[in-house]
Amino acid sequence: MAGVEFVTGRAGAGASAAILEAAAPRHPGALTRIALIGNPNSGKTSLFNQLTGLNQKVGNFPGVTVDRKTGVSQLTPQLRAEIIDLPGTYSLYPKSLDEKVITDLLYDRSSDQYPDFVVVTADASNLRRNLLLFTQLADLGLPAVLALNMMDVAAQHGVNIDIVALQQELGVPIIPMNARKGIGVAALKIVMAQMLDAPATHFYEIEDELLPMIRQIRYYFNLHNDYLALHYAHQYRQISFLSPDDRAYIGELVQEYGFEATPRQAQETIARYASINDILLNTVSVTRTQRNEPYSNRLDKVLTHKVWGYLIFLGVLFLMFQAVFAWASYPMDLIDQGVAWINSLIQTNFDGPLINLLTEGVLAGLGGVLIFIPQIALLFAFIAVLEETGYMARVTFMMDRIMRKFGLNGKSVVPLISGVACAVPAIMSARTIENWKDRMITIFVTPLMSCSARIPVYTVLIGLVVPDQPVLGIFNLRGFALMGLYLLGFVAAILSAWAMKLLMKTKERSYFIMEFPVYRWPRWKNVGITIVEKVKAFVFQAGKVILAISILLWVLASYGPADALEQAEKRAKVEGQAKGFTAAETDSHVASEKLESSYAGHFGHLIEPAIRPLGFDWKIGISLLTSFAAREVFVGTMSTIYSVGQDADQQTVQQKLASEKDANGQPFFTPARSFSLLVFYVFAMQCMSTLAATYRETKGWKWPLMQLLYMTGLAYFSALLVYQLMK
Amino acid sequence: MSTRSTTASPAMPRSVKDLRLGESGTICCLKDPEMALKLLEMGCIPGTQVRLNSRAPLGCPITVVVGESEDYTLSLRVSEAATIILK
Q1: How many domains does chain B have?
Q2: Cα(A156)–Cα(A140) distance, rounded to whole angstroms?
Q3: Which residues from A are below 8 Å from B54, CB to CB?
Q4: 3.30.360.10, 3.40.50.300, 3.90.1580.10, 3.30.70.2470: CATH of A1-291
Q5: What is the pLDDT of residues A508-553, one digit of tens each?
Q6: Does ipTM come in above 0.95?
Q7: What's the predicted TM-score (pTM) here?
Q8: Among its keywords, does the record have Transport (chain A) (predicted)?
Q9: Is A515–B42 a contact, with Cβ atoms under 8 angstroms apart?
Q10: Is A52 annotated as a binding residue?
Q11: d(CA B75, CA A511)
Q12: How far is CA A82 from CA A56, A113, B82, in A?
């Protein structure tokens, strides 16, 4: 098929070609593959959620780390299709790495991932700009259906669209809809269940003088049309599936013909807008031109006010912390008690090493995973609502001037705030920052923001040393202490970014320009799906690490080199008799001696000299090592260590730590120790997953290793300072 | 709508940066070729009308409303707005 010649003509001329193109292979046996594409803020996510509900899977695009969201949609009772949600974009000329995923997918017809057709979402109230992307897709020869979204907003704005006429002009089926309310989804599904043809209409004619070069590229790569060949000429450096030889070939042609990409691209965009204007002239009429977004503007007068705006933003952040810290505690207590109850039930009825593995290894670890679901859910509920309502854009708007001073971008606020939940998705979200330097700095400092995995460490230690006192009636002193730790991480991130801004050199410029969405009510379904998605990611990704480490630790803590444990037991029993311990005290002593002789104890003792100046002992040493896998493991480790060291009495981790005594019989977790440890956890890069994310985002080990060295060093010296000053 | 209140200035061409709050102008050209690609895609085509809608509390960025029928709002930095020359 590739050799078939047809003329890239304007409307009408391409009709016969379209029939040929519609014969695209349908992947026999496989599900129909449909790509969802559209401008940012065109309701693409709402539509994706409407089509797929909770049947969503999050993966990665090959080679890059942009989330690849796919879902299965039941189009008709008999027919299901796989939907790929592509990142929002304004055109097929990628301006960010996110958008590159789209071109990689749509340029490679031979790929088994190539979609059978695309659903293009367009904001009906803003059709001119939304059609730009559509016309490019149409010229690529992709079968398409246009989901004309936000018809309600268009109607409010007095925009009348003649759907039938527009359908004729564009040459594809058009479904008017309101994806947020689910209106039009059924009609869209019916159209999606049909065999769709490539649009017969072409919207842009490639200049004649470019054709010799374009045709060479086209025939060399066996491309199905000229417009795709033009994109090869524009983007050969970025197309991931081209070999170095291929790139060199195009590079030479581009040189030979003196092809200037930037002005050509500008010309194309202008030409496309001209033809879109022609189309809209015949199909769209606007009865009221004054729209002015009265509500949004009035809200913005307050929400982006120079005083109220920042106060409200601070209030929103504070509310987030209170929610995560205070509100989440009720469901967390229930989970805690539930796990403890099951554990004691098993332990009172059964006995043996496997039972110990089950209760002290598996169940303890599982409890450690489940306990954080409420916090993650609440935090992402907030973040999703901020994004859904359009408030996040205002945050960026208000913060840009400040962030820029520190080498960050207004857009860095989003990764930094997301970093409060988890650095891994946050580092990935830094991709929306087009400027390389801004992005690198954002990625580098984001893990300094206190993520949800630190919350368990914070919670346990704050609970030990900060009294549970009400402040101003409704708040809590512990809430304030928690906020202080968050601020500490934030300040460290900002100052580190500022230092990097001074140290790093770059030629690239930093863009800000973005769409400023109107305020909208959040769609709770979208918020709910975000929450489920994040919780799932945590439970299945962080969760399995936690569980595995828990079990490994139980093994390390229960076994030692040769007969070291038996020796320790004998020794402890003799000591116990000599000191006149009761039976229970002897048991506890035996257990603690055994742990110290185990593999885990050896680990801890090995690093103790290095961490003693910070106030840490070998038990904390063990936890520091294991929690490198994920910070929340610290609590699981401490709990395992101490539950091994005590009777199988069901106490919370906090009570166990509080009852720990030092050599002089004083409480071990003094404020100096606890704050030293807290500060260590604010700064330390105690997370393999974050390093892995940085590695993938920066495509090398240089950045993650620098991050590891920098953060560990910062943590070590800050904790040293805290302990030595407070001791 | 008679929003074309901008009079042709003699010496320095005015840019979006120079608009007063609420004032409209018509895009003449884009000064910076690289940034032009982004601006064009976002609908800032020569001949399009833009209105300065608001400024961030610290004076930058700003928001502009694009299109004669007030199609949508963009936010951009003052330095970026300075590359959009008005008629």
Answers
A1: 1
A2: 34
A3: 297, 300, 304
A4: 3.40.50.300
A5: 566 788 888 888 888 888 889 888 887 776 677 657 666 776 777 7
A6: no
A7: 0.77
A8: yes
A9: yes
A10: yes
A11: 11
A12: 10, 11, 45
